[in-house]
Amino acid sequence: MAWRALRRVGPVLAPRCPRLSPPRVPAARRLATSSLVLSARKFTDKHEWVAVENGIGTVGISNFAQEALGDIVYCSLPEVGTKLNKHDEFGALESVKAASELYCPFSGEVTEINAALADNPGLVNKSCYQDGWLIKMTVENPAELDDLMNEDAYEKYIKSIED
Fold first, then answer.
1. How many CA atoms lie within 13 A of 5 on its CB side?
2. N- to C-terminal Cα separation, the chain
3. How far apart are CA 160 and CA 151, in angstroms?
4. Which of 45, 56, 73, 39 has the alpha carbon at shortest distance from 151?
5. Beta bridge partners of residue 137, listed in sequence order
6. What counts of helices (H) and strands (E) characterise the chain?
7. pLDDT (tens digit, 9 = 90+) per residue, 50-100?
8. Which residues are within 8 A (CB) of 145 and not within 5 positions of it... i.e. 6 or more apart?
9. Is-contact 143 106, C-beta < 8 A?
10. With 70 as the cut, is the pLDDT of residue 1 above it?
11. Non-local CB neighbours of 133 within 8 Å, separated by 6+ positions
């Protein structure tokens, strides 16, 4: 890092750079899975998640779901332009253990599918909240998102179904 290089020449630059300690990184940036990052995600009782940015919702499956499925070997996703209503089935994931249908968490139109999953469906297992997202779609009725669980409620839901 630059601060290490500056530390080596510290005496020369000391009057201009009085602070040569490592830069402080906010806690939210240190760990990508911190509760600050995940709190923006909403979850369904069918284990899909959604994160909305600028009116576009990114949809994927939760870590709980991908662990339950095991190694995913095939993804069936809708075409771009498909209009979906809340709770509509929009695809399926197949694993070595089972197959699972995917259900839309809100109403809207598919704007993008994760094309990388066609060649590498295992991305869902490796990075379900980042590279393993499934579809992106417009949010037709933002009020539908209010029916979804935040991270804390979803964790409680998982614990209740595991008991």
1. 2
2. 48
3. 14
4. 39
5. 57, 110
6. 8, 9
7. 999 999 999 999 999 999 999 999 999 999 999 999 999 999 999 998 999
8. 42, 50, 52, 57, 105, 106, 139
9. no
10. no
11. 58, 59, 60, 114
Q: How far is CA 142 from CA 52, 73, 105, 152, in A?
A: 10, 33, 11, 21
Residue with tokens 């490796």: 126
Q: Name the DSSP class of 45.
A: T
Whether residue 121 contacts residue 15, with contact meaning beta carbons closer than 8 Å, is answered with no
What is the per-residue DSSP string for 55-107?
TEEEEEE-HHHHHHH-SEEEEE-PPTT-EE-TT-EEEEEEESS-EEEEE-SS-
Name every residue whose Cβ is closer than 8 Å to that of residue 55 and which is 6 or more positions away in sequence: 138, 139
Return contacts of 123-127, CB within 8 angstroms, 24+ apart: 124/60, 124/61, 124/66, 124/72, 124/75, 124/93, 125/66, 125/69, 125/70, 125/71, 125/72
Residue 53 belongs to what H/E stretch?
A: strand 48-53
Q: What's the CA angle centered on 100, arms 131 and 158, to 5 degrees?
A: 80
Whole-model pTM over 0.85: no
Quickly count: other Cβ atoms within 10 Å of residue 121's Cβ: 20
pLDDT recorded at residue 38? 37
